[in-house]
Amino acid sequence: MGIERTYAEINARIKSGKAVVLTAEEVIGKVREQGLTKTAAEVDVVTTGTFGPMCSSGVFLNFGHSAPRMRMTRVWLNNVPAYTGVAAVDAYLGATEIPEDDPANSDFPGEFRYGGGHVIEDLVSGKRVKLKALSYGTDCYPRKEIETSITLDEINEAILFNPRNGYQNYNCAVNTSDKTIYTYMGTLKPRLGNAHYSTSGQLSPLMKDPNFATIGIGTRIFLGGGIGYVVWNGTQHFPGWLKDSEGNIVGSAGGTLAVLGDLKQMKPQWLRGTSFRGYGATLTVGLGIPIPILNEEILRFAALSDEELHAPIVDYSNNYPNRVGGNLGLVSYAQLKSGKITIDGKEVPTAPLSSYPKAREIAHTLKDWIQKGDFLLTEPVQLLPGPDAGLTGKTLEIRS
Amino acid sequence: MAPHKIVLRFDSTTSDQPIIYHLVKDYDLMVNIVKAQINPHLEGTMVLDLDGEKYEEGIDYLRRQGITVHPLNQEVVRNNDRCTSCGACTCHCPAGALYMERPSMQVHFNGDKCVVCLQCLKVCPVRAMEVRI
Ligand code: SF4
Ligand code: SF4
């Protein structure tokens, strides 16, 4: 049996400045060069990264109390409504929320120039944001309305809490119809005019730990340029294996993460307000996860390359919206990254929605933090359900 | 009068038509093709200097063919701080002005190739592409 390491041993090496840390991209070459056993003996940590649109993102805000005090029943930030069924001066602002007077898709395809994700970017940039709130008034909280402005520094807490981020793998989206369609996977041209995908492939956190052997509740991560934590599995957490027609495993499926961190530590270049024409507003989030190389098996997965990781090609003109299963084939991330794939004998240009250069930058930043001793690894309090848990998605049935 | 600088956009049904021939032969116009580009989907863009007595008639002819015509008095620029190098624009830029360098996957912008079709302004998720008039 090869090496076995503990979190404590890895952290001791980080503290003494001796830890060997490689990015998920760098480790691929190393394993190719000198094999799994030797690399596992050398490398303590592999860092991953991803920077893509993650709709399920948002921020809990505590504004502090005005005089007289107010129990905020409805709240708007730069005209974008926030959810207030929390406590008196707390609200949750979701990345996909849009202003009430936004024409949305009534003028199709809508532009969605500003939404919750943009407010979050403005806050983290230090910009002043308009706060408007209404209340019904109580004896303890008499004020009924307020109009003021806030900055991130002036409010008590801003906790980024994203209940579904870091999708393990995702569809490669195409359009087989005769008209252009506007989706959360971008603008898709008719008749297989283009194919969009959205993961960082060989750098993508959950693809590099597909068994959830190291990632769990309490895992310390890079989140939005600051330090955050994995706090639970994400919603729609359906880890599993992607298999080809012969039943061979060719990648992982759809695990997700719920993550949390202090917005005040974060940076606007890693939390970017995002708009998809004809679809809506969202937030592009930078996320990076360290994978401790506890044994050779963990390294084996952490060293999977773009050639070995695949995505299903899904038609977003009919199959996806109508929940018709199946796909138009599987394609490797190496093929996707080459700029073209072949579907039904037709050459189709590909483009990502998530930034590979930024994913690489995140993996390198995390590597630097660890090498400098600024970032220690945490042993999860509990691991998240992996492929063996057999979790699959439920559907919503329409009943009378 | 100085020639008019215009941008034409063709879809796949018009990109194989001999439109320059007709501009010269039927409308007696002087044509200087500044840039021309056709993508794998046979959609095309062309920047022209166009001059002559029957300029307006020539433009009407183009529009009747389903070709969009707009004046080239704008410049498209990229806000490099905002661009995340995601790549979402690269399949939509008909002129190859926004393109991905491989294997780094860095997205570059070559303003010389840009035909100001404004497609990138619509598809860029973070609004990194801007128009300067
Ligand atoms: S306007 Fe944008 S999409 Fe059009 S040619 Fe220029 S760079 Fe390409
Ligand atoms: S879509 Fe926008 S952000 Fe993405 S590469 Fe193009 S210009 Fe940059």
From TrEMBL, chain A:
Pfam families: HcyBio. This is Homocysteine biosynthesis enzyme sulfur-incorporation domain-containing protein. It comes from the Bacteria. InterPro entries: HcyBio. Residues 19-377 form the Homocysteine biosynthesis enzyme sulfur-incorporation domain. It comes from Desulfotomaculum nigrificans (strain DSM 14880 / VKM B-2319 / CO-1-SRB) (Desulfotomaculum carboxydivorans).
TrEMBL record, chain B:
Keywords: 4Fe-4S, Electron transport, Iron, Iron-sulfur, Metal-binding, Repeat, Transport. One of its GO terms (molecular function) is 4 iron, 4 sulfur cluster binding. It holds the Pfam family NIL. The keyword Iron-sulfur applies. Residues 74-103, 105-133 form the 4Fe-4S ferredoxin-type domain. Signal peptide: none annotated. SMART domains: NIL. The keyword Signal does not apply. PANTHER family: ADENYLYLSULFATE REDUCTASE, BETA SUBUNIT, L-ASPARTATE SEMIALDEHYDE SULFURTRANSFERASE IRON-SULFUR SUBUNIT. This is NIL domain-containing protein. The lineage of its organism: Bacteria, Bacillati, Bacillota, Clostridia, Eubacteriales.
